């Protein structure tokens, strides 16, 4: 148990370096730069970020454990199997980008009240940044996380909570500690006009994250969902523009309520397209990816094929899993690995979890993994399967296939 707690904490720290977290973490870096001359504010926002991460993790784990107690086989990142959740995240990312571009401001009225009001607005913003960061972190899997999360999901609820809490503390630790040590903050550049340019630049990673999530949504729920989310993006952008106009008129002491009402009406218009996403599904499950596999994955197919004199490589993946996509492009789809598969007569299977698939979730649980990616090689002689590292290299895959093939030759 202590090993799992330590692994979860270390995995949480490393998770800050994963690409899916960068767009949100960059916002926290901007906040640290803004307050580096005011240590008290920096410490308060660091703690607020920690609270946001921990509270959100507790809520996610509660939903996860309740679903598992109800008989559902779900794991780390389960919320991204819902088209509605993905759509909401797209809109949050887009709204953040529009805010960074200066189209509207968050907490503008609070800032006019005075320092106390502005401080409260900053604390709420930091807590929400922490909440968003841990939600978007789920498509990534850092080293040391897989075994810890897999172990946690096989333990009683109390132990599971302790391990996931350790993961959350590790994730929040770097920024919280930096906010508490002025000597580290002094390394950061002083605030100035350049921060406006930086703020605008940081909007582009948020737009990139929104674009990626739209791609995932289209893969998961089809072209109808794509049309719905693009409509929502247009409406949200219009609402943000109206809200920004209202704020400017309010600051100038001019009438602004009509614009506020118009903003509210446009936001209400977002609801119908979002509702259509709740039960939407694509006509096929990542057909282009599955077509590349020699055999469609299922537990029954694996049982029928393994031990028949050919190695079997199973790739448990999903469109929303960034680590999976990186491994696909840097290792599995390389010519060297394809040649090794052909040379060893390897049967390649893909288990797609872009949408909820109870068989995939059960297989992850059977292998002691709480989330994606998972790569399993079955030896040609039907021996014990080998689980590959979550971060692949072509050499790792080729060596595993060669060893699996040699076992069949010896038999």
List the helices and strands and how they pair.
Blueprint: H1 2-15, H2 22-34, H3 39-69, H4 83-100, H5 108-113, H6 115-136, H7 145-152, H8 157-180, H9 182-185, H10 194-201, H11 203-221, H12 223-251, H13 257-268, H14 271-276, H15 287-291, E1 295-296, H16 299-305, E2 312-317, H17 322-332, H18 335-343, E3 347-352, H19 358-366, E4 374-378, E5 386-387, H20 394-410
Uncertain ranges: 108-120, 283-293
Please state the CA-atom Rg, rounded to the nearest Å.
24 Å
Order of helices and strands: HHHHHHHHHHHHHHHEHEHHEHEEH
Strand order of the largest sheet: 1-3-2-4-5
How many strand elements? 5
C-alpha termini separation: 39 Å
Supply the helix-strand structural class: mainly alpha
Shape: globular
Mean pLDDT: 83
Share of helix, binned? 55-70%
Q: Please report the number of helical segments.
A: 20
Q: How many domain modules?
A: 2
Largest sheet: 5 strands, mixed
Beta fraction: 5-15%
GO molecular function: protein-disulfide reductase activity
Membrane topology: Multi-pass membrane protein
Subcellular location: Cell membrane
Keywords: Cell membrane, Cytochrome c-type biogenesis, Membrane, Transmembrane, Transmembrane helix
């Amino acid at each position: 148990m202590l090993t799992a707690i330590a692994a979860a904490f270390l995995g949480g720290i490393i998770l800050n370096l994963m690409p899916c977290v960068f767009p949100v973490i960059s916002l926290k870096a901007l906040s640290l730069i803004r307050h580096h001359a005011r240590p008290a504010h920096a410490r308060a926002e660091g703690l607020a970020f920690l609270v946001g991460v921990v509270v959100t993790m507790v809520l996610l784990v509660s939903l996860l454990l309740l679903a598992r107690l109800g008989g559902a086989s779900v794991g780390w990142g389960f919320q991204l199997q819902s088209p509605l959740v993905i759509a909401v995240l797209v809109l949050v990312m887009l709204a953040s980008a529009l805010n960074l571009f200066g189209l509207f401001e968050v907490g503008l009225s609070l800032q006019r009240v005075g320092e106390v009001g502005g401080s409260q607005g900053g604390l709420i913003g930091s807590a929400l940044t922490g909440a968003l960061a841990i939600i978007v972190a789920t498509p990534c899997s850092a080293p040391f996380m897989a075994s810890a999360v897999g172990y946690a999901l096989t333990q009683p609820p109390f132990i599971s909570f302790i391990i996931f809490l350790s993961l959350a503390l590790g994730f929040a630790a770097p920024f919280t500690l930096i906010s508490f040590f002025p000597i580290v903050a002094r390394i950061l550049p002083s605030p100035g006009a350049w921060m406006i340019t930086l703020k605008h630049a940081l909007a582009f990673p948020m737009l990139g994250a929104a674009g990626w999530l739209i791609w995932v949504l289209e893969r998961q729920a089809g072209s109808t969902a794509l049309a719905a989310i693009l409509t929502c993006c247009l409406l949200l952008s219009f609402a943000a523009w109206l809200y920004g106009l209202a704020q400017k008129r309010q600051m100038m002491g001019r009438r602004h309520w009509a614009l506020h009402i118009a903003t509210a009406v446009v936001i209400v218009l977002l609801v119908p397209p979002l509702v259509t996403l709740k039960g939407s599904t694509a006509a096929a499950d990542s057909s282009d990816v599955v077509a590349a596999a020699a055999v469609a994955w299922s537990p029954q197919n694996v049982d029928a094929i393994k031990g028949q004199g050919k190695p079997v490589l199973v790739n448990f993946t999903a469109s929303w899993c960034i680590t999976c996509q990186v491994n696909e492009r840097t290792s599995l789809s390389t010519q060297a690995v394809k040649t090794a598969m052909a040379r060893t007569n390897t049967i390649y299977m893909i288990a797609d979890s872009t949408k909820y698939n109870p068989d995939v979730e059960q297989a992850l649980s059977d292998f002691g993994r709480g989330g994606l990616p998972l790569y399993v090689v079955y030896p040609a002689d039907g021996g014990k399967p080998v689980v590959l590292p979550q971060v692949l290299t072509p050499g790792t895959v080729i060596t595993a296939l060669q060893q699996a093939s040699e076992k069949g030759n010896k038999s």
